[in-house]
Amino acid sequence: MSSVSWLNRVRWDEHGLVPVIAQEVGSNDILMFAWMNRDALAKTVALGEAVYWSRSRKKLWHRGEESGHVQTVHEIRLDCDEDVVLLKVTQAGGIACHTGRHSCFFQKYESEGKSWEVVDPVLKEPDEIYK
């Protein structure tokens, strides 16, 4: 088996990307959703830390490179269709979201008010994280 055959198993989209879900080890909280290209997934495996593809910046993004909120990867899974990656991670600092929250999924739909409600607190103000 070639050293890159595992990368060839991933069904990359037309842009060479695959969606990635970061899930916290222990709590099983879904922390964030992001994208990876081949280089990002290979670097994640090599480093043992999450490296994503930033579509807005058009470059690799080592999670925590600015904030210090690195994601240590414990396990990598590929879904049944081989087109979504799941990372099981430990989140340094407990903050995965650029809004300063534990998870990016901090808004909950409330059917009574037919609205999205913020249900998780800001743990640290973004301007204190990103200088």
Briefly characterize the structure:
The protein has one domain (5-96): Phosphoribosyl-AMP cyclohydrolase (Ubiquitin-like (UB roll), Roll), CATH 3.10.20.
Top keywords for this entry?
single chain; 131 residues; alpha+beta; Ubiquitin-like (UB roll); two-stranded antiparallel sheet; 3 helices
What does this structure look like?
The chain contains three helices and eight strands. A hairpin with a 4-residue loop joins strand 7 and strand 8. The protein has one domain (5-96): Phosphoribosyl-AMP cyclohydrolase (Ubiquitin-like (UB roll)). A four-stranded mixed sheet has the order 2-1-6-5, with helices on one face. A two-stranded antiparallel ribbon has the order 3-4. By secondary structure, it is of the alpha+beta class.
Helix-strand topology string: HEEHEEEEEEH
Query: Ranges with pLDDT <50 over ≥5 residues?
Result: none
- Count of helical regions: 3
The gyration radius over C-alpha positions equals: 16 Å
Distance between the termini: 45 Å
CATH architecture, by name, is Roll
- Overall pLDDT: 95
- Name of the CATH class: Alpha Beta
Strand content: 25-35%
How would a crystallographer describe the biggest sheet?
4 strands, mixed
Order of strands across the main sheet: 2-1-6-5
* Overall tally of structural domains: 1
Q: What structural category arises from helix and sheet content? A: alpha+beta
CATH superfamily: Phosphoribosyl-AMP cyclohydrolase
What is the molecular shape? Answer: globular
Helix percent band: 10-25%
How many β strands by DSSP?
A: 8
